[in-house]
Queue: 2 jobs
Job 1
Amino acid sequence: MNTDRKKIIDIIPPAGAARVLVTSGFVGSIGTGMFLTGSALYYTRVIHLSPLQVGLGLSLAGLIGMFTSVLLGRLADRTGPRVILVGLHIFRIFAYIGMALVANFWQFLIAVVLVTSADRSGPPANQALVGRIFEKTERLRTMAYLRAFRNVGLGLGALLAGLAVESDASWAYRLLVFGNAISFIPMAFLVARLKRFERPVPAAQDPVDEPSKPAAARARPLREIPFLSVSLANGFLMLHDSILFVALPLWIVGYTEAPPFMVAVVLIINTMFTAFGQVWWTRMAESLSDATRALTTCGTVLALASAAIGVAHYGNALTASVLIVVGVLLLTAGENLHAAAAWQISYDLSPAGQQTQYLAVFNLGTNVHDTAGPMVITALGVSAGPPGWLGLAAIFLLASTAERYSVGWTSRTRAAAALSGRLHVSEATR
């Protein structure tokens, strides 16, 4: 079999649990893409909310969703992530139907808290399910397939939402929300089918048997400061997401000579390269040490991307367009490598028996980014001009260094606690 053939096959997930998971994620991302594309217009043009009311509701829902994800993570460690994920999908069917029927601010507030709490709880449960079914490199590759197909699904959903936006009719916007609700029906069915692939529930490791994880096995993740610092630093690295969807469109149209159609070009480049390349990037993060080293590369590449995009401000139409394309290629490489490294780090630092709640706490950094990231990116990547992009470059370098240090800090703290536990056990048996 030649190399080209292998690359083509590598795009498609293998038969079995991986393909079921990817199919579920792909279907769900179409609904999510429809909803996210039209949600702001639905809130303001159909429910007639002010931008302030929308911002207040989304911020409050985001804060509540953070705590909900951790609580459901603890429950998932007891019942299994598959059971929780099926329940979340069924819950979201009704929650989004409710969102499609709201008529005022208070109804919106209740609905957005419910859907956001469920949405924030889904990713850690889904990642934990992947960890429950697959081991080592296979779980990393499966996460990569999920992300690649999710990007394609989001793009398809956005195209469908464009029809509703073009019509600008209330019924069309509500149909987008109903469509998202319907997408969770096959997701619940597909995830429920994965029961036969699950491995037994892992027990928390004994301090004597595994020195790297005992402190975490006895403690709660919200009390483990080194692990929280990993999550926070990872949240800063997630700013690449806001650059793509928030800062770049505003920057291209308002601050460069590049033609407006470059907004669509950069999204196409990002989507295509992620769809075809995300699995490949996992090869650079197949162990905790590899993933930690990859953070340095990731931070450097993202910093170079920010610099290239910022310098585009000074070029003519052709030069600006070339610099923006170069910046987006670097940005895509950096975000794909970051995703692979973050999966490996979060898996390896999450103790057996408590994996879902640790993954939920790890995702708190991402949740903070989702809440504050657009504001930070708009202030630095748009309002501050080219110097702001250099500031973003510095943030990426500092965040990657901080996360790398925090991973080592977490490992050293747990190893020290393990040694202390062994000494206590030894003294007690004398």
Job 2
Amino acid sequence: MTTTSTAPSSAGVDRSLVRRVTWATWTGWGLDGFTNQMFPLALGGIIATFGLTTGQGGLATSCALISSAVGGVVGGRLADRFGRVQVLVLVIGAYALFTGLTATSQNFEQLLLWHTLEGLFFGAEWPVGAALMAEYAAPERRGRVLAWIQSAWSVGWAGANLAYLLSNAWLPETAAWRVMFVTGVLPALVALLIRRKLRDVPTTQVQRKPREQGAFAELFAPGLRKHTVLGTLFGASGLASTYAMQTWIPLYLKEDRGLSVSDTAMYIWFMIAGNWLGYVLGGHLHDRIGRRWAFTVFYLGTTVFGFLFMAVPLDALWYNLLLAFVVGFFISAQASGKGALFTELFPARVRGTGAGVTYNVGRGVAAFSPAFIGWAAAGSGLGRAIVTVVMICTVLTLLFIWLLPETKGRVLD
């Protein structure tokens, strides 16, 4: 028979090791936030540099998200096969490489290639880190622990916004976006150094007999098929809503609302502040009222306040800034429970693979959301296209979460 390594629960494990795992995973998600949110901020400069349409800009975003879906599935499977930490180190190194190469793009085709390959390794980060941290966290605290880890995304987003503000203050937008991607290599190197200290992770052995079905076949066998299919549909509709907001809001503020770089950055700062708070508090609510009700509250909140954010006149400055804060809060609060949910749906032997499939295949389907909005914006306007996609996706998301089982407090094997 063959064996695969997984990390055990935090009970009985050296707490200094748990802290190192926590901060190593936190830095990885921070890197994800930094690099992923750079592209929407840089999109205006990229479009100006290569003379692209909004449809081509949406295509570049969608290609990276589709490749991240592939990366997530493969990364999750490799983590189940070879261990979590080893795969994470490989992912971070490749991530840094292709982030740097994106800055060297000389035409749209090169940009598409490097950004797609960057997305491949970006996708592998999430299921591997989620599986590692979920297995260390106590069941009754898993929602808030993984939400805290995901709060690093907001810190990374803040770093991307700062890079956007400073680079555009000193350089024309056709050069500033390249500097932003070069700076994206630096946090990747820091994360890589931290991860290298986690070689001595304690492991338990998951036994798989020679004649047992493989991991992917098991996910679609009768015992887990419902979790896999519904989890993937939930991931797809939920992420499509998130991408509709996060990908196009910077360009919407700049083009439709006519804001300057500094004014756009100010709105993003308020959204980031709400984003961080949403991650932290959202995890507590997931542990208190359960996954279903928490997701319901947060997705409805995103839709309602997202619509208000688009509808309030620009001259109502403080109302707009407050709404940016609230929208950021609900966007991240809805994401805060996904790490817990997708790992709680599957047993240890396929946990990384299951989380990779549900989250990242969902991400691949959701990747068409930015491209569709970019196409639809030509006829209906960017703001209306964003709101329409968010509303449709919210209805589907709530349907799928109530068809899934409640996993609050589930003890992981």
